Amino acid sequence: MLKTLGLFAMLGTAAMAAKTTEDAKAGTAIAGLAAGQKEELNKAIGEYIKNNPKVVVESLQAFTEQQQKEALKKVQDSITSSKDQLSDSKNAIVMGKADAAVKLVLFVDPNCPHCRLFELALGDIEKELPGKDKLGILVRQWPILGQNSEIVSAGLVAASTQDPAKFTVLSEKVLKSEKSMDNALFMSLAKEAGYDVTKLEAATKSEAVQNQLKNTKELAGKIGLEATPTVILSDKNGARLVQVGDKEGLKKLLVDAIKAS
Fold first, then answer.
1. Is 197 exposed, middle or buried (0-12, 13-18, 19+ CB in 10 A)?
2. Contacts of 221 (CB under 8 A, 6+ apart)
3. Is the pLDDT of residue 30 over 60?
4. Model pTM?
5. pLDDT tens, position by position, 39-69
6. For residue 116, with 0-12 CB atoms within 10 Å meaning exposed, 13-18 middle and 19 or more buried, which class applies?
7. Among the four residues 23, 82, 132, 174, which has the most C-beta atoms within 10 Å?
8. Which domains are delineated in the chain?
9. What number of other Cβ atoms are within 10 A of residue 45's Cβ?
C-alpha cells in the first residue's frame, strides 16, 4: 500500500489519490516517517519502479486519458450551451442555405493543411449529397497560425461578401494550393478568380469583416477550442463536436443527420 502511494507521489498524482479519506490518512503517515524510514521507503519506491516499468506507463496513460475525457466533456458542454451563436450565419462564410435544418460549423485556419484537406473532402461530398438543400456549411475563419493567416482570413471573409460565384473559384484555389498562404499569394489568386484586388484589399479592413473574425475568436475561446479544424454539427438534437476518421464516415454522418431532420 505504501509503495503504491509512494509511486503516485513520484508520478505527481498524489493529489488525485488523496481524494479519499483512507489515502489522506496514508499520506499523513508517510509525512510522519523518520529520516531512516523515509530513506528505506524511497529505496523501495525506486526498486518498485525499476521492476515494474509497465505500471508506471499504465498509470500515466490512465491519468492522461482521464484528463482528456474531462477536457472533452467541458468543451462539449460549452458547445451545447453555445448552439445559437454557432448557428449564427451572420458571423460565418455560408455555403448552402443559411437557415438549413442541419448546419456543419467549421473553425479553420487558411494555412492549416488538415483544414484544406477536410474542406476539399467536404466539397466533394456536398456535390453528391442526397438532400443537400437541408445542409448549411458555416465556415468560421479562425486564424491561429500567425499574421499571414490573419490577413488571408480577412481576405476570404471579404471576398465571400463581394461575389459568391467568384468566391467558390477563389476558395478552391486557396484550398488546392500546396504553398503557405500570405497576402501576396492570396491576392494573386483572387485576381485570377476575377476580383478587383484593390477593392478587395480595402474590404479586408472593414468593420464588418474584422467584427466577424473577432466574433469567431471570442466564441472559440469561450468554448475552449484549441486546434483547427474543429467541426461541429448543429441540428434539432443540439450541437455537438464531430470527430470523423475518413471521408466515408463524414458522408454517413451528414446523410444520417439530413434524414433525421
1. middle
2. none
3. no
4. 0.74
5. 777 777 777 777 777 776 777 767 666 655 6
6. buried
7. 174
8. 2-76 (no CATH), 83-260 (3.40.30.10)
9. 18
